[in-house]
TrEMBL record:
Protein EC: 2.1.1.72
Keyword entries, A-Z: Methyltransferase, S-adenosyl-L-methionine, Transferase
Parts of the chain that traverse the membrane: none
Keyword Zinc: no
GO biological process: methylation
Domain of life, per lineage: Bacteria
Entry annotated with the keyword Methyltransferase: yes
MF terms in GO: methyltransferase activity
Reaction(s) the record says it catalyses: a 2'-deoxyadenosine in DNA + S-adenosyl-L-methionine = an N(6)-methyl-2'-deoxyadenosine in DNA + S-adenosyl-L-homocysteine + H(+)
Organism in which the protein naturally occurs: Helicobacter turcicus
Protein name listed in UniProt: site-specific DNA-methyltransferase (adenine-specific)
Length: 363
């Protein structure tokens, strides 16, 4: 999915650095805590390579993705649900073997449209009484989202699906919605003209799940508080504590408010042209230049870990020199620089490449 600071393309390079510096000894016996999980791309990458994963984020839609991709270890069977719905024999959601997962997605894709909260507030016809009707989704796709989200919730309440199946279906919806939203990248604003992809009929995508024989853990809340609570209760020392915090002043909660609302489906009070939900409790201290370095120090100095791995953009609000000065007294420090193309920059004078700094601190 499109996500600010997504490390999907950088994860293999970070892994290569850790291998180069012999940080990865035996993945099967090492733990990896992704403290700012976001889209879970890093956690998934390291889970595939045998690590035991812990992950956390203060956004609920990220928690849904974590429950599906990180904590879940198998392909859902939907055994109980099969007793209550009839699957179509000609289900064609997947090009490969029609598993129960594929058939459930096909069932959801064919639900009758419903004019629920998303249609009423984020589609042009549903919000036509506003001074500027919202154009996040086409009328048809907004109604499909409402129908699918309502059905998933009903199945869970009736216990037709278990917790793991519930979050897998939510993750499928969250991932799919991103492909049809009429936005430029984030949800802080909608496009005033229809993007071609937003006019296509929404279809739930089959997400790739990572099978594993380890028990993995994910958490919903402020990352440092989750880490401290976990370590206080279990005296857990992580082999690798991975930090990929926000690096500029753009708060994630308002930029992804609509995914948050679809994930929670809690009919929140909303306001403004964009229809923002209340997000004051989801502010990250890393998005403020005055508090970011202090927050990093609290984690680096007091957390229990063997290695701290910090990934940070070269254009971040914390200066590289300040991070060097903070981390050097805490142990053996390595800093590597990974250049990569600037994301769709419209500034012709800007450098075509930016860098990701990766600090590796041996405690």
């Amino acid at each position: 999915m499109r996500f600010i600071g997504n490390k999907e393309s950088l994860a293999p390079k970070i892994y290569k650095l850790l291998t180069k510096h012999k940080i990865i000894a035996n993945a099967n016996n090492q733990s990896f805590f992704d403290m700012f999980a976001g889209s879970t791309s890093v956690g998934r990458f390291f889970k595939k390579r045998g690590f035991q994963i812990y992950s956390c984020d203060m956004l609920y839609f990220s928690y849904c993705l974590q429950k599906a991709y990180i904590e879940n270890n198998s392909i859902p069977a939907f055994q109980t649900l099969r007793n209550y719905i009839k699957f179509k024999d000609n289900a064609n959601t997947c090009l490969f073997e029609k598993t129960s997962f594929c058939k459930v997605l096909e069932f959801l894709n064919n639900l009758e449209p419903m004019q629920g909260f998303i249609y009423q507030n984020y589609a042009p016809s549903g919000s036509k009484d506003l001074h500027i009707p919202r154009m996040y989704f086409s009328d048809k796709n907004a109604q499909k989202i409402d129908a699918i989200r309502t059905q998933i919730q009903l199945w869970r309440e009736k216990q037709y699906i278990n917790e793991s199946e519930y979050f897998i279906l939510l993750a499928s919806l969250i991932e799919s919605v991103s492909l049809y939203a009429n936005v430029a990248g984030v949800y802080a604003a909608f496009c005033k003209k229809w993007d071609k992809r937003a006019l296509k009929d929404l279809q739930l995508k089959h997400i790739e799940l990572v099978q594993s024989d380890k028990v993995h853990f994910c958490f919903y809340g402020e990352s440092r508080e989750c880490l401290e609570g976990l370590q206080d209760s279990q005296s857990k020392i992580f082999d690798m504590l991975y930090l990929d915090p926000p690096y500029n002043s753009r708060q994630y909660a308002p930029n992804y408010h609509l995914l948050e609302t679809i994930a929670k489906y809690d009919n929140p009070a909303i306001k403004g042209i964009a229809g923002l939900r209340e997000w004051s409790e989801q502010k990250s201290k890393f998005c403020n230049a005055k508090t970011a370095l202090a927050e990093l120090e609290k984690i680096a100095r007091y957390a229990k870990y063997k290695y701290l791995i910090l990934s940070y953009n070269s254009e971040g609000i914390i200066q590289k020199e300040s991070i060097d000065e903070l981390l050097k007294p805490l142990g053996t420090l390595i800093c590597e620089q990974i250049p990569y193309p600037r994301f769709k920059s419209n500034n012709k004078r800007a450098e075509k490449f930016v860098s990701e700094y990766v600090w590796i601190l041996k405690r």
